[in-house]
Amino acid sequence: MTQDLATIAPELFLAVSAMALLMLGVFRGRESTGLVLMLSVVVVVITFALVWLAPSTRVVVFEGLFIRDGFGAFMKGLILIGTGVSLVMSWRYIERENMAQFEFPILILFATLGMLMMVSANDLMSLYIGLELQSLSLYVIAAFRRDTLRSTESGLKYFVLGALASGMLLYGASLIYGFTGTTNFDDLAAAFAETRAAGEMPSLGIIVGLVFMAAGLSFKVSAVPFHMWTPDVYEGAPTAVTAFFASAPKIAAMALFGRVMMGPFGDLVAQWQQIIIAISILSMLLGAFAAINQTSIKRLMAYSSIGHVGYALIGLAAGTEAGIQGLIIYMTIYLVMNLGTFAVILCMRQKGRMVEGIDDLRGLSRTHPMMAAAMAIFMFSMAGIPPLAGFFGKLYVFLAAIEAELYVLAVIGVLTSVVGAFYYLRIIKLMYFDEPVEAFDRPFGREMNLVMGVAGALILLFFVFPSPILEGAEIAAAALLAG
C-alpha cells in the first residue's frame, strides 16, 4: 500500500491541493480568485517536480490499474507545462473579461488530474475514469462565460458530442472485455500475443471493439472524421480556455492513444494500423484545405490543430519505436508553438475588447515589431520551414513512416504541408507587407512577453541543442514499448 501511494504521489498531491483550494475559494469568495490562481500555478510546479524526481522504472500498482514509466513521466511533464503556462496566460484575461471566479483555475487543476490519470492508465476502467474526469471539467470551462451565447453554445456542443464519443469508447471497451474476459492492459497484451503466436486471427468482436475505441480516442484528439466540435468550440470558448484546450488536453489524449494502441493492442497492429492511416490522411487533408478561407484566427488555429494531429498520428501509424519517438518529439514542439501563438492571440485587444480577425494582424510589424517577429517564428515553424523546430517535428514522423514503408502516407504529409504553408505565410504577409489597421492595446503584461520570448527562442534555436528533447523522446518511446 505504501508503494502504491508513493507511486501516485504527483496525482495525490494535485487532487488534495485542488480540493484544498476549492475550500479556500468557498470560504473567501470571489475576491480569492487571484490568490487561488497563483496557488494553482504553484501546485502545478510542485506536481511537475514530483513527476520529475520520481524514479523512471516501470511500476504497476493498484492491482494493475495504474502504471508509472518513462513514457508517462515525459508526457506528464508536457501536460503540466501546458497547464502552468495556460494558467499564467489566463490571469489578466479572466479579470478583464469578467471571468474572475475561483472555480476557473480549480476546474483546470481537476482536468489536469484527469489527464495525468489517463497517461498512466493500465486498465480500461482507469482509462475511462481519467478520461471522464478530464472531459467533465473541460465541458464546464468551455461554457464558463454563461452570459455569452457563443461560450454557452460551444460548451453544449462539446458536451453533447463528447458524451457520444465517450459512449462509443465505453461500448468498444465492453466488447473487448466481453471477448477477452479482462480489462487489464498487460493481460490483454498477453492474450493477443498468444493469439498471434498461434497464427490465429483475433475474433470479429475484438476488432469491432478496437474500432469503437479508436473512434472515441480520435474524438479526444480531434482527428477527422471526429473533429466536428473543434472549430466551434475553439471559436466560442473564451480565448484563455481555447489556449488551454489546444495544449495540455491534446498532449494527454495523444499519449493515451499511443499507450492504448502500442500497449495492449501492440500485437494487433495489422488490424488498427489502417484505421490510424485513414484518420491521419483525412486530418492532414482537412487541416490543410479547410483553413485556407478562415477569417477568424481561432478557427484557423482549430483547423491547424486538426492538421497537426494528422502529422503526429503518422508516428503512431508506423507502429514502431521510431514512430512513437517521432510522435513525442512532434507533440513537444507543437506544445511550444501553440502556447506561443496563443500568447500573441491573447494580446489582440483594441479599445479594451478582444479581436479575433486575421485581418486585425495587418501591419503588426510596424506597430509591435517584437510581437510580429515572435508570431512569424511560430507561423514559419508550424509550416515546417527549416531550420525551425516545426521542420524537425515533421522530419522525424516522416522518417518513421518511410522506415515502416508507409511511403504514401509520408508523401501525402509532405504535400499537405505545402498546402498548409499557404495560410501560415498569409499571416506573415499581412503582418509585414500590409498597412496597419489599428495598434493593439498596451501593455501586454510581463507574463505574455515572457511566454512569447521563451517560446520563440526555443523554436528558433531548437536545431542548436536538440539533444534533450530527442534523447528524452527516445527513452520515453523505449519505455512504452518495453512494457
Any descriptors?
4 strands, two-stranded antiparallel sheet, mainly alpha, 483 residues, two-stranded antiparallel ribbon, 21 helices, globular
Task: Describe the protein.
- The protein is mainly α and 483 residues long.
- The protein has one domain.
- Strands 1-2 form a two-stranded antiparallel sheet. It has a two-stranded antiparallel ribbon with strand order 3-4.
- Helix 12 runs parallel beside helix 14, helix 15 packs antiparallel against helix 17 and helix 15 packs antiparallel against helix 18.
- The protein is globular and about 70 Å long.
- The model has no long low-confidence stretch (mean pLDDT 89).
Can you give me a brief rundown of this structure?
With 483 residues, the chain is an all-alpha fold.
Write the layout of secondary structure elements.
Layout: H1 2-7, H2 9-28, H3 33-53, E1 59-61, E2 66-68, H4 70-96, H5 103-119, H6 124-142, H7 149-180, H8 185-197, H9 204-220, H10 230-236, H11 239-245, H12 248-262, H13 269-290, H14 297-318, H15 321-346, E3 349-350, E4 353-354, H16 364-367, H17 369-383, H18 389-403, H19 407-433, H20 446-460, H21 467-482
- What proportion of the residues form beta strands (DSSP E)? under 5%
Q: In oligomeric terms, what are we looking at?
A: single chain
Distance between the termini: 22 Å
Provide the helix percentage.
over 70%
Shape: globular
| Strand numbers in spatial order across the main sheet | 1-2
Q: From the helix content, strand content and strand pairing, which structural class follows?
A: mainly alpha
